[in-house]
Structure prediction request, 429 residues.
Amino acid sequence: MVTIEILFYSCLYVRQGFPSPAEKITQNGESSSFSVFRYTERQSNMFNFTYHNPVKVLFGKGMISELSHLIPKTSKVLILYGGGSIKKNGVYEQVIQALKEHKIFEFSGIEPNPYYETLMKAVELGKKEQVDFLLAVGGGSVADGTKFIAAAMEYSLGDPWDILAKGAAVGKAVPLGCVLTLPATGSEMNGNSVVSKKSTQEKLFFNSPLVYPQFSILDPETTFTLPVRQTVNGIVDSFVHVAEQYFTYNVNTPLQDRQSEAILETLIEESPKVLKNPQDYASRANIMWCATQALNGLIGCGVAQDWATHMIGHEITALHGLDHAQTLAIVLPSILKYQRTSKKQKLAQFAQRVFHVLLGQEEEESIQSIQKIEEFFQSLGIATKLSQYKIGSENFEEIANRLEKRGMKLGEHQNICKKEVLEILQLSL
Ligand code: NZQ
Ligand code: ZN
Prediction:
């Protein structure tokens, strides 16, 4: 059996390996009229990895009806959802219809950036009713919240918040499945969960192989009702997930590079179509599959990973309430500018292959690459500066202090500490 292990986020604590002395090789870059000879630093080989992804994906129109076969009829199922979008777009009815022979319970009200305080109420209900299967129906927040509930229901060593705050081990979890209605996080096909605590304004994550969904149903039709803001958030989140695993340094992984470029290029191509026609099934389907592929571990195999944009973004959400993707659209361009020299080769490669910018100089191409990314975000109508949300530099110290307190050294070289976070935030103003 093939195995996959996702490095997502845990890479913050795992040294990814430093580049070996630069070896100069020539590479032929081509444009329609001339050939460009390039000196590229080939820094080392692909890192070792273990790959295991056990999620069964059911993709396409009408697939929610398959639920009846996916969960044993003897199960007591707790259906978890958010603020009610599934009741307005017919997804709820489809789920209830499919589970009409099952014993079901419901828990609603899981909010965006799900709160620990809310999730603990679901833990209580689940334990009281002795449910043995959890079904998340919604976006990433519902999926993440359900993963936490699955782990917390089986946690007996104290406060389940310790799983997030102290990295307490998840020894057991209630099995779960997912009906996804918002393509963005990749939560439907990974073992990650991000949970916030209202009382302390913290936003933390955990990762466990025990909380992979057993299955995820992805019906693009469920996404027709997404508000523009959430459609855009999903595109940006997916884009940045790829960026975190691609804009690092070269470890000679042409396959993973091209897989990443394929996702980025597809997102760029499909976004205007879906914004123009929200009921365009073909575009919705392509964007949905891109979002899943962006964070199901595949493109991250054996490559250096960054994740600094996400870590800084989580603090901005926790303190200032911006949507997850809104923070990413601001922080990513700043980090790319701040670390342009160390990321130059990948930035230039991206400009050449995706935007067909062939200037013959990595320096210029890397600059254009960042400009094009910012322009892409702006074309979606998402802000790329903190000042557009009226967040000023007086808030930066607290963001940087929080990351420092957690001992975080961010980026693929673990060289982004407090001082660097402050400088990156200045670039985001
Ligand atoms: O609550 P309801 O009423 O369902 O409305 C939701 C919510 O208000 C709405 N929505 C979802 N599907 C809809 C819909 N509205 C109409 N039609 C539909 N089909 O959209 C709003 C936002 O939903 P949410 O689940 O919060 O969005 P998203 O999927 O972007 O999830 C964001 C959360 O995921 C975390 C983020 O930090 C954030 O907490 N992430 C999880 C990751 C993971 N598990 O791997 C990785 C990500 O980087 C991210 O950190
Ligand atoms: Zn994200």
User: Anything to note?
Assistant: The first strand starts at residue 24 and ends at 30.
